[in-house]
């Protein structure tokens, strides 16, 4: 399972991005995007913004769950109060045979299962808490890139913890 | 604006960390939830803010505009903070005008002034049917302000109007918010009406969402 996470501001410009892999079941937390598809992640992620902007008015929840799919790439979205979007692209590992029954219980083996939804929700909530802290800084202005290494560490920690 | 320049400490890419190693990310967000500040110190600070805004302005309108801008950034930040503090079950982004106004009247006002705003009204004027009004009988920010005669149309609650505008903008309901003094006899001499004029696209979207 590989993840690409981005925070997109109200002017559709990315404010933060981070790529990581699953840390569950003894994985090393590194992403496994091949060089051929890595550069597509940003396109796929940003193309789902249109859908996010439609879905966000259907109900008031912040977590919009999985909103888009492009081949094997699933996009989950979380909208903050100030309409900043957290987008997470998750790409399940290609099951290379063998332990089929075991890997099917892994988070993310089935990207739309309730367990995966819940794990991503917890991840988003933790990022949101840190996001509010970043935004509350008097030096932060709307739609400014977040460069803090502490914020990056926090997002990485949330990723390790839940995904 | 780029990032504020900070003297580099070498290690963390120019980020200066306090000696105890605690950054804003280590501090809990809810500790100050019920904390209150002294009204005297607020009044003093606000007085300075008005003085600051008054420098090099040509008229009342420009002064109010500056106060509005000072409040705008606060509104944007408060929107996310207050939503974050809501219990998870009622943690909803406002998706229609009424929900937004209700959020402002109760959550925002309670956070800022420890009470809800006095009334919420929809314009009865047939020419502007989509204007909304939040009414505060005695705005806290004006408690110690007496406006000089030659600036009689000034209402320093323009600052609060700016905060409200920030919340509306943040929630993607862009519009103009202005503060107007509407004294009501002996009872409420400082009564203030916050007039909210949403942009036409907001009203349009509201009508469209209401149908489906």
UniProtKB/TrEMBL annotation, chain A:
<protein>
    <submittedName>
        <fullName>Sedlin</fullName>
    </submittedName>
</protein>
<dbReference type="InterPro" id="IPR006722">
    <property type="entry name" value="Sedlin"/>
</dbReference>
<dbReference type="GO" id="GO:0005737">
    <property type="term" value="C:cytoplasm"/>
</dbReference>
<dbReference type="InterPro" id="IPR011012">
    <property type="entry name" value="Longin-like_dom_sf"/>
</dbReference>
<dbReference type="GO" id="GO:0006888">
    <property type="term" value="P:endoplasmic reticulum to Golgi vesicle-mediated transport"/>
</dbReference>
<dbReference type="Pfam" id="PF04628">
    <property type="entry name" value="Sedlin_N"/>
</dbReference>
UniProtKB/TrEMBL annotation, chain B:
<keyword id="KW-0813">Transport</keyword>
<dbReference type="GO" id="GO:1990071">
    <property type="term" value="C:TRAPPII protein complex"/>
</dbReference>
<dbReference type="InterPro" id="IPR007194">
    <property type="entry name" value="TRAPP_component"/>
</dbReference>
<keyword id="KW-0256">Endoplasmic reticulum</keyword>
<dbReference type="GO" id="GO:0006888">
    <property type="term" value="P:endoplasmic reticulum to Golgi vesicle-mediated transport"/>
</dbReference>
<dbReference type="InterPro" id="IPR024096">
    <property type="entry name" value="NO_sig/Golgi_transp_ligand-bd"/>
</dbReference>
<dbReference type="GO" id="GO:1990072">
    <property type="term" value="C:TRAPPIII protein complex"/>
</dbReference>
<keyword id="KW-0333">Golgi apparatus</keyword>
<dbReference type="GO" id="GO:1990070">
    <property type="term" value="C:TRAPPI protein complex"/>
</dbReference>
<comment type="function">
    <text>Plays a key role in the late stages of endoplasmic reticulum to Golgi traffic.</text>
</comment>
<dbReference type="InterPro" id="IPR016696">
    <property type="entry name" value="TRAPP-I_su5"/>
</dbReference>
<comment type="subunit">
    <text>Part of the multisubunit TRAPP (transport protein particle) complex.</text>
</comment>
<dbReference type="GO" id="GO:0005783">
    <property type="term" value="C:endoplasmic reticulum"/>
</dbReference>
<dbReference type="Pfam" id="PF04051">
    <property type="entry name" value="TRAPP"/>
</dbReference>
<feature type="region of interest" description="Disordered">
    <location>
        <begin position="1"/>
        <end position="25"/>
    </location>
</feature>
<comment type="similarity">
    <text>Belongs to the TRAPP small subunits family. BET3 subfamily.</text>
</comment>
<keyword id="KW-0931">ER-Golgi transport</keyword>
<protein>
    <recommendedName>
        <fullName>Trafficking protein particle complex subunit</fullName>
    </recommendedName>
</protein>
């Amino acid at each position: 399972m590989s993840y690409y996470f981005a925070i997109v501001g109200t002017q559709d410009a990315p404010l933060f991005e981070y790529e990581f892999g699953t840390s569950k079941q003894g994985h090393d937390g590194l992403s496994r995007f091949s060089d051929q598809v890595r550069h597509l992640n940003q396109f796929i992620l940003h193309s789902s913004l249109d859908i996010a902007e439609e879905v966000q008015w259907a109900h008031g929840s912040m977590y919009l769950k999985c909103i888009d799919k492009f081949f094997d790439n699933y996009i989950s979205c979380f909208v903050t109060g100030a309409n900043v979007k957290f987008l997470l692209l998750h790409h399940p590992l290609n099951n290379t045979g063998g332990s089929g029954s075991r890997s099917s219980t892994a988070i993310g083996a089935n990207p739309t299962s309730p367990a995966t939804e819940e794990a991503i929700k917890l991840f988003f909530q933790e990022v949101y808490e840190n996001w509010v802290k970043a935004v509350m800084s008097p030096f932060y202005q709307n739609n400014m890139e977040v460069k803090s290494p502490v914020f990056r560490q926090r997002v990485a920690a949330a990723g390790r913890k839940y995904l | 604006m780029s990032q504020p320049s900070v003297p580099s400490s070498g290690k963390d890419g120019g980020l200066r960390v306090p000696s105890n190693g605690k950054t804003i990310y280590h501090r809990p967000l809810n500790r100050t939830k019920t904390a209150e500040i002294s009204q005297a110190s607020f009044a003093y600070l606000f007085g300075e803010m008005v003085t600051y805004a008054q420098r090099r302005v040509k008229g009342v309108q420009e002064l109010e505009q500056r106060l509005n801008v000072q409040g705008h950034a606060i509104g944007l930040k408060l929107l996310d903070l207050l939503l974050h503090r809501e219990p998870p079950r009622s943690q909803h982004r406002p998706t229609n005008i009424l929900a937004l106004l209700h959020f402002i009247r109760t959550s925002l006002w309670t956070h800022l002034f420890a009470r809800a705003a006095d009334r919420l009204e929809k314009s009865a004027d047939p020419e502007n049917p989509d204007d909304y009004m939040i009414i505060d009988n005695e705005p806290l920010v004006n408690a110690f302000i007496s406006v000089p005669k030659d600036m009689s149309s000034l209402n320093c609650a323009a600052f609060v109007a700016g905060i409200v505008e920030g919340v509306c903008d943040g929630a993607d309901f862009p519009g103009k918010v202005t503060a107007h003094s509407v004294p009501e006899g002996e009872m409420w001499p400082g009564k203030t009406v916050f007039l909210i004029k949403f942009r036409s696209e907001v009203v349009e979207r509201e009508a469209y969402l209401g149908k489906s």
